[in-house]
Amino acid sequence: MGASLFSIxxxxxxFSIYFQTLRNNTFIRLLCLSMxxxxxxxxxxxxxxxxxxxxxxxxxxxxxxxxxxDRANRIMYYSFRYVSMVAITYIGSSCLFFLxxxxxxxxxxxxxxxxxxxxxSLIFLFLLIPFSSSIKKETTLGLSKRKCLAFIxxxxxxxVVAAYLFINNRHNxxxxxxxxxxxxxxxxxxxxxELAAKGAKLSIINNRLNEQFIAQDNNLKHMSNTFxxxxxxxxxxxxxxxxxEKCIVEDLSQDAVIHINQILRRVHHSYHLVNTGNIIxxxxxxxxxxxxxQKRIEVxxxxxxxxxxxxxxxxxxxILMGNILDNAIEAVERIGQKPKWIxxxxxxxxxxxxxxxxxPYAGSHGExxxxxxxxxxxxxxxxxxKRVTEKYGGSMSIQKNESxxxxxxxxxxxxxx
Length: 417
Fold this sequence. Notes:
The protein is built from 11 helices and 5 strands, in the order H-H-H-H-H-H-H-H-H-E-H-E-E-H-E-E. The chain is α+β, with helices and mostly antiparallel strands. It has a 5-stranded mixed sheet with strand order 1-2-3-5-4. The longest helix is centred in the middle third of the chain and has 77 residues, at 173-249.
């Protein structure tokens, strides 16, 4: 019973490392925990065939795992990983125990031998848990399905070979040492897979950062072009005022009015008809209007006053706006001959910045070609938008129907004095 309680404690501790969210249904949680505990107790308490014992352990482990709410593939992977660690430590402990008996000539009954082996394997398993907790944040199933399958097959074959060597040759020193070596190799395989998964995750993060840097660089270029256009107007305005003054002095008011209208059109073109007071929104929405015009996309926008001195970092606002607007442009480009349009609504209400963009899209998002800012293939666009909104305690919501895609980002802010 003590060994059973110890094994239940280790299993609970292991799964609590990788899964933090419990299922909402308390009855289901208690039922799974109770059934898993019973199966663990039966596995450790009864003299059962090895296959039956393994089946009880696997079933109990799955019941402990489903207590937590997570993706099915993660639950299955970490359950398989735990069962493998149980098998490896049990085989290794058995080999070590029989080697000790062989060289010390101790006389131990079968029941006591089995109990000592179970306790020894649980101690080894308990010592492996801190190592698992040190890498829990690094491991995600970022590897391909083929690599995961290869890992499972290699690990299973090594465990089967080690178990066969131990069961059929437990009185042969060389075979016991070989079984222990294979058990150690299994632990190395698990560790190697963890490192490979970590490397795959870092590679994905690196690619996302590169894409984000490219997007940020493009946004800065858009802003730079807008500012240069505005600076050009400001640079020439003095000369224009001199000419207007001359027209007024010479009583050529009609010429003065015509010239003033030309200046206003150029100023409006430089601002792209967007002048909220927030330079990030002005530049990025202005560039979107210019790009949409070139691509014959009709854009309607309602943008109300957005202070420039809000407590949202310009870098984050660039990422948020850039991804939302670029997603809309790319989605509309793929709708074929249908009417191409985008609706942009941006306003600040109390201490919230609300950004809404609505656009049509071609059929199912999953059918569209992947792109750097593809919202619909879990690409970098949505990830970056969600990351920025969560950073400021805001939210992002998406509504889709058969023809339109509606995204709303809400960011709380406070004005900077």
